[in-house]
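Exercise 7. Given the encoded structure of a 344-residue chain, write a plausible sequence.
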């Protein structure tokens, strides 16, 4: 018998994402189905608020064990090294950025983090640093700092996504592999010869992926000097210099100075991107597509729509919300959304 959450199918996808991110999904077993419900295997009981938020209940059921031909998971590799109750507390998910693996540790694992990190390093190929994530994303630069605990003592690496190389120092700049499928979604919409503004460009993943794959011209703005320096290095590394113009500084000040009107504007700063709509409209024309990112509770999508339309009204700019797409997870039932707006 396996501990499961029984949840209505319509909540399944977001709950699985939440369980993955909070390291409670039991990845040893297949999902089960019964009528309108999904049975999601878990490795420990989630908080009461999760049960309430997703209207789900804890049950025990027989589920099929996943047959693996692939290498052992971290938890499997820890069997015989740690006690089962300790293994239960170990995260089965971690981020891989270049040759750095970043993992969070439960507070109860104090003192045995190194053992876990060594085991993770042995489990993975081509990893030279295992680091723990320090708690929160901080400041206007949105940095998620890490502390290397095993392997080489560095926070710099070269990440790869969609055929481009991105030099990054995780303790100086923001970079997340969790945006990479979103870059692909936008890439598919981009037409030849578009002029694109990327606000909040960080070390350059949006501009460089677009410039590498499409015949476009890009303006990339970023406030963090360390990110600007890395973005310039990354542009050279990927030979995209002819297509990208870097604008250093605060978007509030720098965007209004631009003489261009853009076909597409990307605004990947979900906490506060809406505060920059005024500047985005100053460099828009009829038909400009704006990709505006926001964090929101999944029950409040209508409120989010209204909030954004109210801001546009106040700025006397007519827009049409073409689409709202869930592009990432932030917390229990709170997701990162992209509003695809068309300037009318
Ligand atoms: C969530 S990160 C996204 C970075 C990048 N687009 C990526 O996907 O990796 C947001 C970025 O916006 C930058 N930023 C924050 N406030 C800004 C402002 N007022 N003007 C320009 N950039 C800003 C931060 O330094 C950070 O690099």
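Solution.
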């Amino acid at each position: 018998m396996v501990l499961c959450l029984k949840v209505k199918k319509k909540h399944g996808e977001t709950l699985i994402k939440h369980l993955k991110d909070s390291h409670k999904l039991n990845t040893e077993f297949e999902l089960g189905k019964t009528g309108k419900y999904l049975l999601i295997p878990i490795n420990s009981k989630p908080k009461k608020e999760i049960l309430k938020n997703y209207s789900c209940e804890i049950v025990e059921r027989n589920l099929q064990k996943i047959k693996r031909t692939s290498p052992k998971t971290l938890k499997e590799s820890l069997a015989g090294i740690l006690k089962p109750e300790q293994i239960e507390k170990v995260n089965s998910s971690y981020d891989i950025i270049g040759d750095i693996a970043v993992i969070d540790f439960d507070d109860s694992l104090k003192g045995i983090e190194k053992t876990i990190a060594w085991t993770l390093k042995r489990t993975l190929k081509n990893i030279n640093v295992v680091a723990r994530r320090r708690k929160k994303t901080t400041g206007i630069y949105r940095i998620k700092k890490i502390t290397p605990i095993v392997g080489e003592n560095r926070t710099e690496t070269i990440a790869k996504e969609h055929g481009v190389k991105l030099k990054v120092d995780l303790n100086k700049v923001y970079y997340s592999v969790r945006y990479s499928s979103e870059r692909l979604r936008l890439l598919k919409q981009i037409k030849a010869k578009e002029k694109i503004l990327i606000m909040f460009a960080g070390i350059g993943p949006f501009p460089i992926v677009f410039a590498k794959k499409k015949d476009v011209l890009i303006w990339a703005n970023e406030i963090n000097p360390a990110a600007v320096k890395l973005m310039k290095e990354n542009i050279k590394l990927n030979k995209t210099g002819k297509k990208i113009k870097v604008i250093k500084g605060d978007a509030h000040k720098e965007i209004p100075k631009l003489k261009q009107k853009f076909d597409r504007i990307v605004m990947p700063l979900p906490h506060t991107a809406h505060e920059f709509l005024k500047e985005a409209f100053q460099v828009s024309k009829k038909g400009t597509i704006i990709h505006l990112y926001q964090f929101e509770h999944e029950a409040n999508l209508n409120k989010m729509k209204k909030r954004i339309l109210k801001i546009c009204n106040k700025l006397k700019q007519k827009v049409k919300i073409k689409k709202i797409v869930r592009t990432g997870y932030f917390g229990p039932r709170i997701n990162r959304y992209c509003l695809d707006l068309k300037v009318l």
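Remark. The pocket of S-adenosylmethionine is lined by residues 140-142, 174-176, 179, 200-202, 205-206, 221-224, 227, 250-252, 268-269 (CB under 6 Å). Students should compare their own answers with the one above.
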